[in-house]
Amino acid sequence: MNWIQALLIVAVLALLMYLLNSRRSARSKAWVKVGFVLFVVAGIYAILRPDDTTVVANWLGVKRGTDLMEYVLIIAFVFVTLSAYLRFKDLELKYARLARSVALQNARVPTDD
Prior knowledge:
- Keywords: Membrane, Transmembrane, Transmembrane helix.
- The chain crosses the membrane at residues 6-23, 30-48, 68-88.
- The chain is an all-alpha fold.
- The chain has 4 helices and no strands.
- The chain has helices at 3-22, 26-48, 50-60, 65-105.
C-alpha cells in the first residue's frame, strides 16, 4: 500500500470520527467553515495553477494532479454526505420530540359517552 493511500484512509476515518463526536457545537461549526474556506481557496489556486497540483501530487506519490484532486473531492463528498445525514437525523429526533410534546399538551381525558 502506498503511503498516500494510507493517508487518505486515515483522513476519511478522522472525518468520520469528527462527525460522530462533534454533535454540532459552536467550535465544530467554526472548523467546518474554516475548512470550507480553505477548500475554496485551494480550489481557486488549483484552477489558476494546474501544474502545481501535479507537483504536489508527485510529492505525495500520486501520478497526476487530477487524481489528487479526485481523491480530495471524494473525501469532501464523504464529509458532506455524513454531515448531512447526521444533521437530518438530529432534525428528525427534534421533530419527533416536538410532536410528542404537542400531543401530550393536547391530550384529553376520555369520557364515558
